[in-house]
Amino acid sequence: MTKDVEMAARNGGNGAVAGEAYYPPPPAQGGDADVDDDGKQRRTGTVWTASAHIITAVIGSGVLSLAWATAQLGWVVGPITLMLFAAITYYTSGLLADCYRAGDPLTGKRNYTYMDAVASYLSRWQVWACGVFQYVNLVGTAIGYTITASISAAAINKANCFHKNGRAADCGVYDSMYMVVFGVVQIFFSQVPNFHDLWWLSILAAVMSFTYASIAVGLSLAQTISGPTGKATLTGTEVGVDVDSAQKIWLAFQALGDIAFAYSYSMILIEIQDTVRSPPAENKTMKKATLVGVSTTTAFYMLCGCLGYAAFGNGAKGNILTGFGFYEPYWLIDFANVCIVVHLVGAYQVFCQPIFAAVETFAAATWPNAGFITREHRVAAGNGKRLGFNLNLFRLTWRTAFVMVSTLLAILMPFFNDILGFLGAIGFWPLTVYFPVEMYIRQRGIPRYTTR
């Protein structure tokens, strides 16, 4: 897989926008207002659309586990860890944004994907390593979001059942059916050919993430004020009371993985930056968007983690809105879970678009004359030619297959906290810290062992 990914990154580097990967870009014309300096369709993204993409990517299923994560670490280590991860993410995202263009920040060659940036600055084996970490993480995120969306959809059914029949009722449901429905919805959305055409979905998803995070904060605050509340301590879950010593160590590391996952979006930062218009320079816009996105999400994370821990103490559930620490008002819990499902529909696409682009770019470069791969078929809707869409058979087949496989894997691995912790553990350090720092050092020519 990594060899394919690297070849896709090196073949012109136009994988960030999947639908445009089928044709080599025409030479830019000075008087053409519809194209950018690289001959591609003019980018129209702003600070606000980039911020929406970031918030959509960052505030995901990770926010729901932060009360549990804080419970494993306690009042001291929990909030400090949240702030530390936020600071690291913001700092290294700024370094990565500077690597979007090679050389001059206004006129240098664009790197369309994270892999393009790594290939521009680092060695061949580092490109391979990046491919493994990035695409394993992206595929894992797709699986994790499928699990989370299905759990939230099932929680709606459970909340209504508990409200009707009482809290002692048997209200168990199978999550698999909801995963299949989520997969079917994603099959349709995955046919959108261009990443920048999803701006409206990201804005809707960002609004949904604000909504359900606010509901979680509000319910936790109400529980903290009205009681009863769980027992909270400076060090979190207590050895000999809540867990044994081995469990304490394991769950503390899993909590760190959950927090790392909650902040992981660097693997798609370059793809988001490639939707931003210029001037001003894309790195300046992206740094502003990162400040808005990371500061906003950190505020919600602190509120969700700390208030959730204050409300439920060391017994905080792994998913604050589906673990049924809250039962009433059931209609508000239903609405919050609907918002989660809608948000994850958009977030799934934000994370999967780089996967789609890499595979389609590689296929187009390898078989440029294959009509099955390169030809776009115009499908008209109604009598007018204006209404309709472009259908590519390879895109239809490959993206449908990917969604089906990720849905099947989600059905086979329905473990919420474990999946999040695993993804955070394998992805945060290499993708958010190591590669951005290494690329920035190479770009600026910073000598070893110097103060800078």
UniProtKB/TrEMBL annotation:
Highest taxon listed in the record's lineage: Eukaryota
Pfam families given in the database record: Aa_trans
Transmembrane segments: 47-69, 75-97, 118-136, 172-192, 198-222, 289-310, 330-351, 396-416, 422-441
Region spans: Disordered: 1-42
Location in the cell: Cell membrane
Main location: membrane
Positions of the Amino acid transporter transmembrane domain: 43-449
Record family assignment: Belongs to the amino acid/polyamine transporter 2 family. Amino acid/auxin permease (AAAP) (TC 2.A.18.2) subfamily.
Identification of the protein by name: Amino acid transporter transmembrane domain-containing protein
Organismal lineage: Eukaryota, Viridiplantae, Streptophyta, Embryophyta, Tracheophyta
